[in-house]
Amino acid sequence: MTRDQIFAVVRANIVNIVEGVPPEAVSEDVSMRDLGADSLQIVEVVSRSMKELRLKVPRTELSRASNLRDLLDLFEKAAART
Amino acid sequence: MIHGDVLDSRDRIVITGMGVVTVVGDSPATFFDSLVAGRSGITHWKQPRDSRHYSRIGGDLSDFDFAAHLERQGARYPADLVKRGLSLMRAAPLVPRLVAAAALQAFHDAGPPLDVPPERLGHVLAGHNLNAGYIVENSLTFYQDEPDYIEPLFGLHCLDTDVLSATSELLTLRGPCFTVGGACASGNVALVAAIDILRAGRADAMLVSGAPIELEPVALHGWALLDAISIRSFNDSPERASRPFDALREGFVPGEGAGALILERLSGARRRGARIHGEVLGVSATSDASRLTRPDLRGQVDSIRLAMSDARISPDRIGYVSAHATSTPLGDAVEVAAIREALGSRCRSVPVNATKSMIGHCLSAAATIEIIATLLQMRHRVVHPTINQEQPDPELDLDFVPNHAREATFDVALSNSFGFGGINSCVVLGRIEQ
Fold first, then answer.
1. pTM assigned to the model
2. Which of A44, B14, B279, B281 has a C-alpha 20 to 30 A away from that of B217?
3. Domains of chain B
4. Is the CB of B91 less than 8 angstroms away from the CB of A50?
């Protein structure tokens, strides 16, 4: 699984779950908070993306991600483990 | 017994908004048309369910599409409300979607302008165990797949209060908002709670929403093992299964549906020129002090009498009875005996029908839906049939309005609801001339 594939899944979930976010606004440099997501929407984006990608990242690690780049790093590492 | 001087000074409570989603109609108008036509909404279960459980038929709304419903009904709603509704219900389980749809209808029906500040608007939601199907599905994901793959918002959606709060957020209700549980009598018990809030002055208008239990195989199987639901004779003709009072009845037919009412004081409704569907003249809530499923004649008679006493009417004022009538052999027989005893000779001259014969038993939502059916019949001066009356039970000899609707004018109605665990609650409704 490539980083681009992981990013595509995360971006699609953000666009679907966080209202009013155009796909082009989603980049690795931004956080979901920057895009206007509330705490429940962040949980939903992360959980749905993990399930879709069949990945598992412990919650304790997820809490360290401060932007999408950090999140994709964690997902990429988890994908390499599986 | 309530003292006369208290009764004289208490506020009169009226219903000014109604909304409903059932298997035979998702608005009061379409629901009423189906009832009068005698149309059954009972089918085989639509979703693939575990083939080992006994239940094959019911009132299935599992494919209810909230967005499509808003397309049909919501053209009249403000655009921002529709947008908020779609956003709130995007990933919601079935029951919050049904309740929100009914509540939006009721809210719109009551206004505009329902000029009550949000802090004076409350919500009592009738029901419990609401998201059972959702909980079962996520339990399977947890145990059979991966705990982290349960629905992301399970921790919120598994609670009954999420159903309440989603609609309270949608409609910006900031007054007293909580859930009330009373098994199959939940809808009427919630009405009692809402009236008490209005009379205590804690709110100026109350939404009462009747929420169903999302039906799932484990609960259905549990009811089958209790011999409470129809599983034997009508699997090839589901529309014939719910047949209250008929000699061939064999158990209730579970159904999904939701109802919603807006209640307010008569003075406030008159002041704003609201259309009034009817007055809640009296209510009762009693217990048989028994956990059993078996109905208790004494408890039912007392509950009917207490509601009439609360309404300060004698039995000869009752012009129509919406029976609880679940289509169980014992339940219907006990209720008919209770109506006979409580109404005396009057029972011979009032129509007594069963809305459940067409929509099944919507459990904790049933009483709210039946209040709506009662008020629609009162307004249109017609009583809907009890369908599937093919073989009369010689023991049950009231006028059940068999198979065909007919014109009937009545100004006072009794609506019964009796739940598992000996929970009884009856409501007396009256016509208000505009």
1. 0.94
2. A44
3. 13-271 (3.40.47.10), 282-430 (3.40.47.10)
4. no
